[in-house]
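EI: anyone free to look at a 113-residue chain?
SC: sure, send it
EI:
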Amino acid sequence: MSRPDPTLTPAPKVKLSRLRDIGWSKWDPIGLLGADQKWEDKDCIPFADEYDRYLLQAASQLRRGISDQIVVSYLVDIEANYMRLGASRGALNRAQAVVEAIQADEELWTYPD
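SC: here you go
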């Protein structure tokens, strides 16, 4: 699917539910979801937006053409330093999986008509 020329069209909007699907299934650095849980489950709704700001930033950076590696580094830094989880063993792999999934999801962005 080709994307419209960004200089000629309004900026696309992210489908937050799809971004959450990616983030919660690939990232969840705090480990809030238990096995077999999904972010949209009734008991998870109170914290469903926990990672939104980071995922939105990552997706926005990728859409603007920022390199995958810079966005991976951003997510690793958020996890290690902002969330204060320190350097964790799977951080790099989780961040790479998120970036790859965002890049691969052709339905993540809604383009105005």
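EI: The chain has a mean pLDDT of 88.
SC: 👍
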